Amino acid sequence: MIGVFDSGIGGLTIVREILRKLPGYRIIYFGDTARTPYGTKSPETIISYAIQDAEFLLEYGAKIIVVACHSASSVATEALRERFPDVPIFEVVSPSVKKALAVTTKKIIGVIGTRATISSGIYQRKIAAIDPEVKVYGNACPLLVPLVEEGWLKKPETRRIVKKCLIPLKIRGIDTLVLGCTHYPLLKPVIQAKAGRRVRLVDPAEEVAIEVAEFLKANPRFEEKLSRGDEPLIYVSDLTEAFERVARLFMGRRITLLKADCEMSHIIKPHITKTG
Amino acid sequence: MIGVFDSGIGGLTIVREILRKLPGYRIIYFGDTARTPYGTKSPETIISYAIQDAEFLLEYGAKIIVVACHSASSVATEALRERFPDVPIFEVVSPSVKKALAVTTKKIIGVIGTRATISSGIYQRKIAAIDPEVKVYGNACPLLVPLVEEGWLKKPETRRIVKKCLIPLKIRGIDTLVLGCTHYPLLKPVIQAKAGRRVRLVDPAEEVAIEVAEFLKANPRFEEKLSRGDEPLIYVSDLTEAFERVARLFMGRRITLLKADCEMSHIIKPHITKTG
User: Which of A46, A64, A240 is best to mutate for the B interface (most B CBs within 10 A)?
Assistant: First the structure.
C-alpha cells in the first residue's frame, strides 16, 4: 500500500491527487485528528507525532510513505528517514521547491504556510541549495486553516484575511507562490485573485503525486510490492461529524472515515518534588 | 495546591481570576498545548485527555481541581468525578449557569462556545433542570479561538466574525450571553458592542473563582491542605514562542511556562488484517 499521513484531514487533497495520477493502487491514510493541528506545535512534538504516524502506516502494511503535512515535512523528514532507513519517504516540500524553481521567471518566490513550516525556514534553505540567487519570502497564515475547516471558502472575511496574508509577499514582487499547507489549495480562487493573475500558484499535492509516480516507474522493486484496490483506507485518530464534513470537502465526495484504535497515553512523568 | 487544567493556554484567564480572589494560594496549571485544541474533538477523546491532565495535577500535589476548559467541563466532568471521587472538582459550566440565571430578566440566555461545548447541550440541560421556563440558545463559534490566539482582538475581521456568530442569538432576543470558552473574555469589548449594550455578559472565569473561594471558606479541611506560594507553576505539554506570547496575553504580564515531561505515546494497536 501507499501510506499517506497528515496531522488531520487536509492530507486528503494529496490522496485525491495520487488517486488521479496512480489509479488502481491501494492507499492507506492516517489523519491524526486527535492531536490536530501540528502547525502550531514545536518541532520536537511534531517529530514524535510523525514517527508514530509512520509506524501506524507501516504496521498496516504501507511500503512507501508520503508525508502530506507541510509542518511534518518541514521539520520531521530527516528524523523519519533516520528512523525508517529502508522505507522510501516522500514529503511535500522538495517537489514544491522543484516546481517553484521551474516556473519562476523573476526569481522571487513566496511561501505561505503554518507557523511551524514558515519558522523552519526549510523553503529558503532548499531553494538556496539549488539556486542561491533566488529570493524566497515566507509568511505564516495560521487563520487560513480554521477558515477552510469551517467551509468559509469564499466569504468576505476569508477574502480579507487572505489579502492581509499576501500583502508582505506582494510588496516583495513575488511571481510564484507556494501553497505550503494542505488546506490552502481549497482557497485557490481567492488566493489567485488576491495574489494577482500573474502570480503562479504551486500546489504541492500535484507535485508530490508526480514524484511518487516517477519513483514507482523507476523502481519496479517497490512498485511490485504495492497492493491494488480501488477505495483508499482512511484512518483517523479521532472521529467527529465535523471531521467527516471536512473530509467530504477535501475529497470532493462522500468518504468513510475509520477510527484507528489508538491509545492516547501521553504518559506524564513528574520530575519535580511534590510541594502541594 | 489548587490545580487548574486546560486544553491550552486559555485557562490562564481562570488562574488570573483565582489569584485575584484567592491571593496567596499556590496554583499549579497544566495546559495541554501538545494536543490543543479540545473543542473540535470528540467527547471520548476529550474525556481521555481530561483524565490524564487531572492525573498530572494530582501527581504534582494538587488537592482540588479546576477544569478551566469549557469543552472538558461540558463533556468530561462526570467522568472525572467518577475517576477521582475524593477530589473536589470544579468546572466552568455550573457557576456560569448560576450567574446567567441570576441576571437574566427576560429568561432568554445565549451561549457561545466551541463545537464540543455547544453540541454537548450541557447549558440547556443544566438550565432546564433549575428553571424549565428559561430559553437557552447556543451557537458554536470555532473561529474565535484562532483569532484570539493571533492577537487579533480588535481587527475589523474579528468584529465581522463576532457579529456573524451573534446574529442567530440576537434574533432570539437574548438578554444574557455566556462566554463559554476561555478565550472569549479577551474579546469582551467587541462581543459587548456586537451583542448590544443591554445584553449582560457572563464571564465564567470570575464565577468559578468565586465558587472555589466559597468552597474553601466552607471546607477548612480542604483549605488547610493547600500550600501557599506567590507565583503559580504553569506547565505545558508543548512549548513554543507563540504559546509564550499567548500566555502573556492571557495573564496580562510576562510569565514563565515550564515544559512538562510528557511521553506522547499514542500507542496504536492495529486491529485489521494486513493487506499491503
Answer: A240
Q: Which residues make Cβ contacts (< 8 Å) with residue A16, sequence separation at least 6? A: A205, A250, A251, A252
A69 has catalytic annotation: yes
A51 lies in the same domain as A180:
no
* pLDDT, tens only, A80-130: 999 999 999 999 999 999 999 999 999 999 999 999 999 999 999 999 999
Residue-wise pLDDT tens digits, B153-193: 999 999 999 999 999 999 999 999 999 999 999 999 999 99
Residues of B in contact with A117 (CB under 8 A): none
- Strands of the B176-180 sheet, one edge to the other: B135-140, B108-113, B176-180, B200-202
* Final residue in a domain of this structure, among A158, A176, A204: A204
Say if residues A268 and B260 touch (Cβ distance below 8 Å): yes
Q: Which of A187, A204, A221 is the last residue of a domain?
A: A204
Q: Is B226 on the interface with A (CB under 8 A)?
A: yes
Report residue B134 as a C-alpha cell.
Answer: 428559561
Name chain A contacts of B265, Cβ cutoff 8 Å: 52, 263, 265-267
pLDDT more than 70, % of chain A? 95
Q: Both B99 and B196 in a single domain?
A: yes
Q: Which domain holds residue B36?
A: 2-92+206-259
User: HSE of A167 in the Cβ direction (CA atoms, 13 Å)?
Assistant: 6
Strand partners, A267: B263
Instruction: Tell me how many domains chain A contains.
Output: 2
Interface of B with A in 163-182 (CB under 8 A): 164
- Say how many CB pairs under 8 Å bridge A and B: 176
Compute φ and ψ for A186, nearest 5 degrees.
Answer: -70, -15
d(CA B207, CA A41): 31
Closest residue on chain A to B58 (Cα):
A276
Task: Sort A167 into a burial class: Cβ within 10 Å, 0-12 / 13-18 / 19+.
Answer: exposed
Q: Nearest 5°: phi and psi at B168?
A: -60, -25
Alpha-carbon distance of B182 to B9, in angstroms, equals: 9
| Residue whose C-alpha is closest to residue B68's, from B29, B106, B42 | B29
Q: Is B181 a catalytic residue?
A: yes
DSSP state of B25: B
Give A172-199 pLDDT, tens digit per residue: 999 999 999 999 999 999 999 999 999 9
Q: Is B6 annotated as a binding residue?
A: yes
The region, left, alpha or beta by phi > 0 then psi within -120 to 50, assigned to residue B191 is alpha
* Mutation for testing the B interface, residue in A36, A40, A158, A183 having most B CBs under 10 Å: A40
Contact B234, B257 (CB under 8 A): yes
Task: Give the orientation angle of helix B70-83 with respect to helix B93-103, to 10 degrees.
Answer: 120
CATH code (residue A252): 3.40.50.1860
**Cα A231 from Cα B197, distance rounded (Å):** 54
Same domain, A38 and A123: no
